[in-house]
Amino acid sequence: MTRVHYYNGDHVESHYSFLHSSKPRHFISAIICSIPLILIDCFGPEQDIPIDPVEHPYYTISGQVIYALDNSVVPFSSVSVVMEILIQGDWVDQRLSTADNNGYFQIDSLYRGQYRIEATREGVSKFSKSIVMMQYSDREYDIIIPAPPNLVFDGNITRCSDAVNLSEVQLSLRPTEIENGGVLGVQTEITNSIGNFQFRNLYAGAYRFIAIKGYYTGISQAVYIPDNGETYFELDFCMNGSSSP
């Protein structure tokens, strides 16, 4: 009994071939004679096995850079994309482009994946946002550079045990995801003598609020500043601990 493997175009199949012979030499001769047939069946022209697989296709992202404040085009902006997550193909290095005098840009040779797209122009706010190229097609994407930030985040820091205001608490506000693609660095402030604080010129989005003071237990909390037409957002915090060791 001999097990024979062959490729039928979709997958490999196995069959058992029974060779009967009353004499050992006839059995051996039958096996030897069947080898060419097996080789033809396995490696013959009918199996149609691709030698060089088709490469993953490239795609293009293109669009226009526009300034949200007055809906004007932003010519000669520097546009870049950096791959964050690969979906299909190979990892892509940073791709760069410069918009023309009408604000149009195009970046080629991109595989399917998630990218961080950024745009900068001297004298205009920056733009940075994650986008996904999921479809098997090119993508059109207009970059809307946001107007200067104008939201205010206001609050108060107290001691949790007796609600006594804490002065000179070191505060920081770290952006984690700005909704409109605006770019902000880490904002820092210090509470005043009655524990009040205020962060100005913020975009709507998610932030990490951190407060530290001496021997008090620090605060590290996610906060969300909405874009609901209001330019003022208030939130109070309290800190545990004592001012002495």
Short description:
The chain has 245 residues and is mainly β. It has one helix at 24-43; strands spanning 2-7, 12-17, 59-67, 72-73, 78-86, 95-98, 104-110, 113-121, 124-133, 139-140, 143-145, 151-159, 170-178, 187-190, 196-202, 205-212, 219-225, 232-239.
Task: Annotate the secondary structure layout.
Blueprint: E1 2-7, E2 12-17, H1 24-43, E3 59-67, E4 72-73, E5 78-86, E6 95-98, E7 104-110, E8 113-121, E9 124-133, E10 139-140, E11 143-145, E12 151-159, E13 170-178, E14 187-190, E15 196-202, E16 205-212, E17 219-225, E18 232-239
Parallel strand pairs: 3-10, 3-11, 12-18
Antiparallel strand pairs: 1-2, 3-4, 3-7, 5-6, 5-8, 8-9, 12-15, 13-14, 13-16, 16-17
